[in-house]
């Protein structure tokens, strides 16, 4: 299932399981419009166990002398792969050969200067934008076109956009349970209880009947998060999910940022423990400019610059990297290869 909410939040999700299939839907809204598509039958695939992505074992993600990223040879745990992805808007070449893999169990951050295409690559992964060139593989299967054009197997992809973009005229309960009201066979009471549970999981209680206008910015983000992790508990198999967060802490005060960062961590559950619990998130990707979010919410970083991944490494390597681009970015210096 993929759900979208434009300037906004896009929870996108493709349900999968070990034996069944699931609906795939997209929904989104801004203050003037809304849309909803439901249709995907999605195959299931067994998930490989999470890898140890500690820096030593993950040394293969470093660059060799030619600047080429070396990856582990075993790709059985790769959920999403972008291979040489290009994207232009008019005469602006934004992505110029972006390649990376997201493995099961990973918490990955995408960082880089403004306008380098971080949100664009998230939209491409989610299937909202098609690359001009290059491929996106979902559990090894090449995706052609956009999400609405075909089945996606083996993974549920959720995209949570910068601002919550909740439906203004719907209550919190209706916003969070939207896809279940629309798509599931669950009864109203059951959905209502699940919404309550899911809201509690993101630290919100007693706000079900409020309208979005009655919430603070941080609360709206948490409601959006709840909407992205809720799922149909009546299904026999519930699929792990990859969540894509676009600047989830932008505009939040430091404490509210910490709350959201910890929530992102807390819904990252892998393995059997997560079955039937809200937030069965196998892996997630966070686009962020916030140092606190980099430190607190992700383990591995991809640095996007001039349309390419120019560096990747573990989070703790970010501040000690000798790469001049990374050094300048980490220090916020005006001197260096990045020119504004
Ligand atoms: N649909 C679109 N049509 C035209 N130009 C676009 C579109 N989407 C993005 N762009 C342009 O592509 C560039 C990259 O945008 P994107 O939002 O992906 O950057 P970003 O790295 O996420 O930036 P920021 O860090 O400032 O959020 C920008 O110059 C933006 O104006």
Automatic annotation (TrEMBL):
Keywords: ATP-binding, Nucleotide-binding, Transport. Residues 80-331 form the ABC transporter domain. This is ABC transporter domain-containing protein. One of its GO terms (molecular function) is ATP binding. SUPFAM superfamilies: P-loop containing nucleoside triphosphate hydrolases. SMART domains: AAA. CDD domains: ABC_Org_Solvent_Resistant. InterPro entries: AAA+_ATPase, ABC_transporter-like_ATP-bd, ABC_transporter-like_CS, P-loop_NTPase.
């Amino acid at each position: 299932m993929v759900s979208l909410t434009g300037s906004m939040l896009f929870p996108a999700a493709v349900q999968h399981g070990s034996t069944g299939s699931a609906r795939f839907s997209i929904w989104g809204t801004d203050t003037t419009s809304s849309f909803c598509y439901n249709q995907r039958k999605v195959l299931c695939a067994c998930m490989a166990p999470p890898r140890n992505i500690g820096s030593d074992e993950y040394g293969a993600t470093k660059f060799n002398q030619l600047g080429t990223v070396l990856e582990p040879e075993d790709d059985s745990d790769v959920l999403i792969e972008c291979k040489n992805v290009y994207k232009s808007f008019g005469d602006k070449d934004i992505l110029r050969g972006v390649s990376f893999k997201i493995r099961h169990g990973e918490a990955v951050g995408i960082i880089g200067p403004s306008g380098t295409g971080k949100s664009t690559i998230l939209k491409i992964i989610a299937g909202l934008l098609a690359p001009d060139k290059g491929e996106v593989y979902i559990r090894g299967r090449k995706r052609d076109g956009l999400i609405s054009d075909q089945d996606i197997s083996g993974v549920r992809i959720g995209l949570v956009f910068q601002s919550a973009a909740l439906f203004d005229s719907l209550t919190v309960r209706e916003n969070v349970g939207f896809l279940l009201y629309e798509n599931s066979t669950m009864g109203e009471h059951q959905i209502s209880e699940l919404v309550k549970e899911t809201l509690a999981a993101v630290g919100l209680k007693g706000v079900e009947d409020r309208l979005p206008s009655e919430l603070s910015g941080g609360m709206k983000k948490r409601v959006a998060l709840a909407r992205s992790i809720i799922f149909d508990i009546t299904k026999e198999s519930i699929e792990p999910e990859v969540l894509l967060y676009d600047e989830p802490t932008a505009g939040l005060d430091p404490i509210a940022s910490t709350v959201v960062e910890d929530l992102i961590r807390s819904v990252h559950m892998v393995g059997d423990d997560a079955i039937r619990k809200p937030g069965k998130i196998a892996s997630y990707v966070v686009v962020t400019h916030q140092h606190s979010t980099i430190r607190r919410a992700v383990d591995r970083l991809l640095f996007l610059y001039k349309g390419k991944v120019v560096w990747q490494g573990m989070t703790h390597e970010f501040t000690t990297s000798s790469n001049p681009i990374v050094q300048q970015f980490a220090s916020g210096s005006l001197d260096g290869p990045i020119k504004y």
